[in-house]
């Protein structure tokens, strides 16, 4: 029998995580929490679009707390620290893509106490942040000395993102610029990306200002643009950029940027993706290094889940054995050994 894992929430990441747990040789799905009552009682495999797994979903946190389980992959849209503390106090390790990537000591006192009380571990991970924005730039920086600048940047065409309510009401697409710029997206992104920047700063030893500078920009449509939320009309937001920078004497030494565009036509300013959808990581030093990563972005008009969502879930799933084996408390990616994927079932 493998490690016993619970999946918390069945959005895009949660569905991919259920599939990933099912494929992992060392893991077994034993529980599934869902937000909506209409999903409660349904088989988790059915919710994930695979064969039945004999695990009925529940919308009761008490049911999950009572389970004998080694770990929970906690993947709601927004984190609830009280839920996480309850899971940890019940003795369940928690792996999550929605927080605690590189938290300050002061911000996590209550959650840490719950982890120690339950002899459990909390680990934040993911894709960006949680990998591309922090872990992998640090990894590649080992091939350079005298580093002066580190950059991690996402270039994404959000016409592949089939979540119209999130695109409009959370991410601000299709809104007037003033509403998008004052909407919730900046605050939602800040926590994770600021932690990612601080991880790089601390690990590399930059004498940066402790305050990370966060800025954002918008582009508007100059003609109608078809999108997953419907037609974006001229004057409405059709592109967004977010930047997080660590500064030494007003000079950026670490920068993380997100570029989200609804295509590359009819935008003002005339932003483009350049070399297509990708992630880039750059280390300036001796020597300079630039790494381009493709494969985490689905093609516009394609079928199936967004590959970045699957990658986010996979990083969580593959981290479970190391997190379960680790000491209790709150551990970052700097505290764990090398995490890898596992061979497909027919190849092991």
What does this structure look like?
The structure is a single chain. The protein is an alpha/beta fold and 348 residues long. The protein has helices at 12-23, 44-47, 61-66, 81-89, 109-117, 135-141, 164-170, 177-181, 185-204, 307-325, and strands at 3-8, 27-33, 71-74, 93-96, 121-124, 145-157, 213-221, 225-227, 230-232, 237-248, 251-261, 267-268, 278-286, 289-293, 329-331. The protein has a seven-stranded mixed β-sheet. The longest helix is centred in the middle third of the chain and has 20 residues, at 185-204. It is globular.
Mean pLDDT: 96
Query: What Rg do the Cα atoms give?
Result: 20 Å
Distance between the termini: 17 Å
Largest sheet: 7 strands, mixed
Spans where pLDDT lies below 50 across 5 or more residues:
none
Which structural class is indicated by helix and strand composition?
Answer: alpha/beta
Biggest sheet strand line-up: 12-7-10-11-6-13-14
Q: Give the helices and strands as they follow along the chain.
A: EHEHHEHEHEHEHHHEEEEEEEEHE
Gross geometry: globular
Question: Helix count?
Answer: 10
Strand content: 25-35%
* Proportion of helical residues: 25-40%
By DSSP, the count of extended strands is: 15
Chart the SSEs and their pairings.
Blueprint: E1 3-8, H1 12-23, E2 27-33, H2 44-47, H3 61-66, E3 71-74, H4 81-89, E4 93-96, H5 109-117, E5 121-124, H6 135-141, E6 145-157, H7 164-170, H8 177-181, H9 185-204, E7 213-221, E8 225-227, E9 230-232, E10 237-248, E11 251-261, E12 267-268, E13 278-286, E14 289-293, H10 307-325, E15 329-331
Parallel strand pairs: 1-2, 1-3, 3-4, 4-5, 5-15, 6-11
Antiparallel strand pairs: 6-13, 7-10, 7-12, 8-9, 10-11, 13-14
